[in-house]
Structure formats: C-alpha cells, structure tokens
Amino acid sequence: MNVYKNIPNFNTGEMSALATARIDYEKYHAACETLENFIIYPQGGISRRPGTRFVAEVKTSAKKTRLIKFQFNVTDAYVLEFGENYIRVYKDTARVESGGSPVEIATTYTEAQLFDIQYVQSADVMYLVHPSHAPKKLSRTSDTAWTFSSINFLPPPSYIANTDINVALTLGATSGADVTFTAGSAAFLEADVGRAIVSGSGRGVIAEYTDTTHVQVDIMDAFAGTSISAGQWFLTGSPVASCRPSARAPVRKSIYLALEDPDATEKTITSCSRAADVVTVTCTSHGFSTNDYVSIYATSARKFNIAGKITKIDANSFSYNVKGGSGTPSASTGGKCIKAVVGWRSGDVGKYVKINNGLCKVTQYTSVNDVNTSVDGVMVKAEILSVLDFGSNTPAEAGLWSLEVESFSSAAGYPSSVAIFQQRLWFASTSQQPTVLWGSVTGEYENFAAGTKDDSALDYALTTQNKIRWLAGIKGLVVGTYGEEIVLSTANDAALTPTNVRALTNTTYGSAGVMPVIVGNIILFVQRSGLKLREFVYNFENDVYQAPDLTVLSEHIALAYVDDLPSYQDSGIVDIAYQKEPNSHIWAVRKDGVLLCLVYNKEQNVYGWSRHITGDEAGSAYGFFESVVSVSAVGYDRVWVVIKRIVNGATKRYVEYFEADYWGGSSGFEWRQVNTDSAKVYTNGSPQTVHTGLGHLEGKSVNVIGDGLLQTNKTVSGGQVTIDTAATYVEIGLPYQSFALTVRPELSLPNGSAQGRVKGWSELVARLYRSVGGYINNQPMEYFIENGAKTPFTGDYRIRNFGYDEGGRICIRQPDPLPLTLLSLSGRLSIG
After folding, report:
1. Could you read off the pLDDT of 125-155 as tens digits, one per residue?
2. Which stretches of 264-305 are assigned E, i.e. beta strand?
3. Do 389 and 358 contact (CB within 8 A), yes or no?
4. Do 93 and 374 form a contact (C-beta atoms < 8 A)?
5. How far apart are CA 791 and CA 782, in angstroms?
6. 667-681 core/surface letters (b: 16 or more CB in 10 A; e: else)
7. Beta carbons of 153 and 448 less than 8 angstroms apart
8. Rounded to an integer, what distance in angstroms lies between the CA atom of residue 467 and that of residue 431?
9. Distance CA 762, CA 808 (A)
10. Residues 180, 197: contact at Cβ < 8 Å?
C-alpha cells in the first residue's frame, strides 16, 4: 500500500520514549525521538544550532564560574562573570578592560555559593542575596567603574527574637507549677513576668519575680533535667510592660522609652516642688513604696520626664533625686505618674522598638536621663526612625509593642531570595525565618521602617512550613517554596500594604532553588527535583493559577544517563535563561553539562525540547556547559555560556556566546553564521593561510571554513594552524554534529494502524531553507556551487529509494560546519 505522508513541522521536539506510543495525541506527529544540536523554530522547522564564539578564559579555570546578566538597556547590557571572590565584566562581544587588564570587582562569594546567588536589578543597581552573606548591591557608574558593597539599610527589617541569657540555671523541679528557678548570677527582671523560659523541649512561663536570681515558673512542657548550662536557655518575646515614648516625631529625634507596670493605673500629680537636688511630688493615694521606680510625665519641661527610684514620704507624696540643672517640672496641671518596672537590658542597645505604628532604635542604656541617676533597666534612649502615630504620654500596652533585632545578621541568617514588585524591594527566607517576606517602604528600596501606613515597610509570615526558594512578581507577588507556590495579593487587586496582604496557595508542586524566568505574564520555574519545568499561569475561567508540566512529553530531558541508566545525582536543571529575540527560547543547563533548549510560544501552544552538546573531535570528551545567560543586543538577544573543556590535558573554562543568525556578505558567499564551537573568525584584508591566536584550542582537531568552503581539518599547534587554501574570511573552531530522528510515522489506514508494519519511503521531499549540505538517512544532499563557494539552497530537495524497515523513521544529520534548516518532510510511504 502506497500513501502520501506529510510531516509539516517538528515543534513537539524530542519526545520521551515513554510517549512514543501516543499515536492518538496530536503532538506525536510533530515529534522526534532524538533532536540534538538542532534549534526548533516556533514556526515548526528545525535548524542546526549556531556555533559559539570564544571570548575569554575565566579567571580561574579550576573553579566553577557563573554568568549573570546586568542590563540597563539595549546599549548598556553586560554579562558578569562571577567566580570565587570576584566579578569580571563583558559587554557587546568582548571582556571589558581598563589599562590592558580585565575590569574586576572583589566579592566574598565562594565557588560553592555562586549558583545560590539570587538577584534583581533596578536601573544601575543590582541587589544580590545569598543565605551566608549580608545582602549586597552592585552599582555601575560606567563600563569600567563598578562598586560592590553591603546595603546600608535605613533601617533594616527586624523581628522579635529570643533573649539569650548566658547564665547557668537550676530548677526546683522539671515539671509542675510555681517551681523556683535559680540563676547562677543576676539574670531576671521585673518585666520578664509573663515571658517563657525555653530549653530544648522544655518550656515554662514566669509567673512571679522574686529578685534578679529567682523567679517562680509554671512549667508547660517538662524540662530534661534540673540543671541547665549557661547558653542553653532563653527567654521568649518582649518585656511584659507598657512602653511610653517621650515624643513621636521628627525622624532622627532622640527620645526616652520608659517601661511601666502593665497592671498599674496612672495617678494625677497635684503639686511638684524642688529643693536643691530633690524634687517632691504630691499625688493623692499614690500607692508607691520606697525604691519603687516611677514614671513621671508632665505637660511641659519634658527634660524632667523620668523613670527613677523614689522615696516614699507618706501616702500622698514622694520624692526623687535630680543631678543638676534648675527649675521644677510643671506637673501641677495635668502631670501624671505611674509605677515603672525594670525590663531593659544593656544588650538591648542597637535593637529596634516597634511602637505606636512607628519605629525607634535603642541607642543608650546607662544613665540616659539627665536628671536622675538611677534609671538603668527602666528607661533607655532611642532614635526615631519612622514617626509614631501617637504622641508622648501615650504608652503602648504590653503585647502591643515589641523589642526586635535585625532580621538579617550572622545569627539570624541572611535572605536567600529577592525581587522588586509594586515599587518595593522584597527579601525572603533567612535561616531563622525561612517562611517570612519583607517589603521595603514604597519607592525606598533600602528603607524597611515598619508601620501601618500604605507605603510603610511590611513583613509577612507564610503559614507554610516550607522554606521559600524564589520570588517573582506578575499579577501578584509569587512565592515559590519547597512544597507549594503561593501568591501574595489583595482582595480587590489593590497594591499590597501592611494591612491588606493575603496569601493564597495555588499549586503544590514545590520549587528548586533555581531562579525562575518570566515570559510575558507567565513564570517558568523548576520543580523541586530539578527534573521538570512548569509554567505558572493564571486561569481566568477558574480564577486561579495553574502550573502545567512543560516536560510531560519529554520527561527524560532533564535526566542524565550513565551507561544507559538514569543517574539522578547528575540530573536536574541548575541554571536557566530566557531568550526573547529573535524567537522565544528557554535555555537550561543540566547538571551533567548538557544544554537544553525549549521553544516556547504559549499563544500558539508551541513547546518542544532539544538537547545540545558541545563536542570536541571524535572520541574525546565532550565540553561541559555550566552556566547560561541571555542579554539584549541590537535586534536580538545574545546567549552566553560558560563551558568547561579539556584542552591539552588541562581543565579550561571559557566564556563563549552563540553566534547570531547572520547572513549577507561581499566575500563571495552568503552565509556568515558560525557553525563551529569555541570559534574564532578571521577577516583578512588579503588571502591568508596562517592563523594565530588559537591557544585556547591547543592540541585540538578543528574545522576550517575558508570563504565558504570546507577545508581539511587541522590540529592546533603552538596556538596556530596553517590552512590549505588562503582565504579572506576564515572560521576555525571545534566540530559538532546536528542529529534528528523522527518518530515512527502513523496514518489512518482502512485496515488499521501503520504501527508495527514494514514501512519504507520510496520517495521523500525535504523542504529546506538556506541550507548547505547535510544527510538524510545517510544520503548526502548536494547543491549548486557558485564562484567556488556553496550557495545556500532554499526549496524542495527530492530523494528516492530509502529501503524498508519496521519503523519508517527518518534521520537528518549535519556533521559539517554548514547551515541546515529543515522546514518539513513529505513523500510516498510504502506500507507492507
């Protein structure tokens, strides 16, 4: 039976062996069993991938290197070479140098940390994060002037941390209520009542303060023993006391923060007088005792606002000492007083206080009051960082203010993810707070002053137990965690503010720690195992995000094989880049050094994978792709890679880029696209035979193309080769082969399926575009030659008598460094 079969496109790409029986699936008919070193066009054709041009060897070839893009605009687009403790800069197609030496910026990132760096860019500043380093910023002034520095947050984000007490502790019992806990030295304060003591799995709440070394504790969870070593226990939360600020504004103003008994009520002062350094206060039925701390706040003469020890005179009066100055507090018309408590520690200096919807930083602990000498632990001096909503004399009750430490520190850890969304700089996930996000003040990326205003900085803790792996902003702020994908948004699609955030889990696939790419309004992310790429896309019908698997037909694509068996330790995607122009392609580096490419066009339902290897001469080790990045150039995006090669017995790592789809010329042939790897191109003013500068390929067998004609392969010796025929335009580089194998053809036959039957193509037509050479089922395709150079052929190339086999598959191969683009295959298929 003779039938006519057409294969109009190949944009399903390389299909998994597990899917090659799915003849019922539409995409089967545009698939290949193998697609290596071919690029898939969105229109459906496949083309031999471009070769790579050699740019430079990395600084330290013995160590892994990563490429990161830094792009201000099309003309100011850079590729950054990140190596151990340094960055080097590339622009256009060359490394940036100054005075003959590479421009280099010192960093603190080690080789092992490079691929865990995440980053986001705003104009000429890039923010970088790594969980072992304080957040950094890389600033560009010119091509040769760069600054790498830590971010000076004004202020940083903060959180309520545990208070470590470096004192040994003895317990009266390991469980029960009203248990005496004895500290080896002064450790407890009055405002610790209500805080929990935690050691291991043991937990108890302080019910009563006796003195600085003794408290009574109600044990909630039993302790392991009655003796706890210094440094093995801590107090949770903030001091349990009301906190009264002496002023609310302006920013940078120094104020006092006094702690008050949360169960006390304020009393009205009826009179106040001073004799020498003693102030006497009359306050009906004040209820104070000698040596009590009392907080006094008057309507004027605020320098006399104090929180110090008093001497009880009688039930209606008391006195306190001052240390110089003159005058008496004007407290007779509205002055108030209330019992104060000790709750501040000297270690609180440098910490932050969130109070009355504003933020302060503690700056001084000892003798902070200029009129009283005994206020340690009751009052501290602080600096206003963001204005408080309520004025002085308005305390925040216990539990409504917090004493906090920097969220980013060596003790708490540093953020591992970063993004810019809705004019805020967002950080996420430290070791201490792995599920928390922090958003800056709107429009002020280094200001994390918290508050409740719409533009105040904010922090948000997810309810998940899974660590955040990445952030990306589209319709909402998307958070990829180890176990799910969550969207931070608002109920009415308004801007995120400190008071309207909602987090909705949309999918539960989990993410790897690879930064995602954004294509339009779609996020493409690597699933937790590294073996799948998913598209996080909004479904308007269901009003929810979904994450279809882009590897469902090619489940093998991110899987490495050793001796024909899957090797999971060598598998998975480790780096990813998006090339917008000239066509939409996703490039991904596999852990074993294979480069993957996905043609991706959501509107046309086009997605198909191909694999790319960079080969040396036959029989030697392949090159090893390690990193990929795509940056804009004029009219297209240029894809850059780091490739590890073995050259002359030594490990080398080279920065290279894929040649553009370049045609046209006046040297006697039309095509100019590089078709070898790690190539150099020589444009000679007159025909030349000797070409130098090839030391990066020392000892390698290389392809030579001179003025459009293949010449004999040469071996690089002493960094040069002598070619057979002098030429003005010469390309020299490593060979690689492009190979495609179609799936078994299927047709609807009157008597059933074509599968399993003997099939043979009696005639085949390959529709080609700008092609030179190549093989179909090992039969060479020959074209016309003009002016001594092969002219690219566009049209239908007809081949007959292929022979029979049960598969009927077609093999397309291009081993030569020549262009080949196949648009379709069609022909007469004989079925037995």
Report:
1. 999 999 999 999 999 999 999 999 999 998 9
2. 267-268, 271-275, 278-282, 293-297
3. yes
4. no
5. 11
6. eebbbbbbbbbbbbb
7. yes
8. 9
9. 11
10. no
